[in-house]
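Field reference: "sequence" (input) and "structure" (output). Example, LysR family transcriptional regulator:
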Amino acid sequence: MKNRFICAEEVAQELSVSKPYAYKLIRQLNEELKAKGFITISGRVNRQYFYERLYGTGNPQGDTTMSYKAGQE
């Protein structure tokens, strides 16, 4: 099972951006989660939330391994 959290290094690689910019994105996403009442971890963000906010889906490029409702369409 893949880690539930994505770190700055993975974000930077996924988006082809610098690590400092990846940290900035993670901070922004964590602020959104905090506003919704979630507990966050500095330098990491929930992987599913990351993909939802960046790609509009909880799973990257249709990867059904991350979605609870995978295969139930």
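The helical segments are 8-15, 19-35, 47-55.
The CA atoms of residues 4 and 44 lie 10 Å apart.
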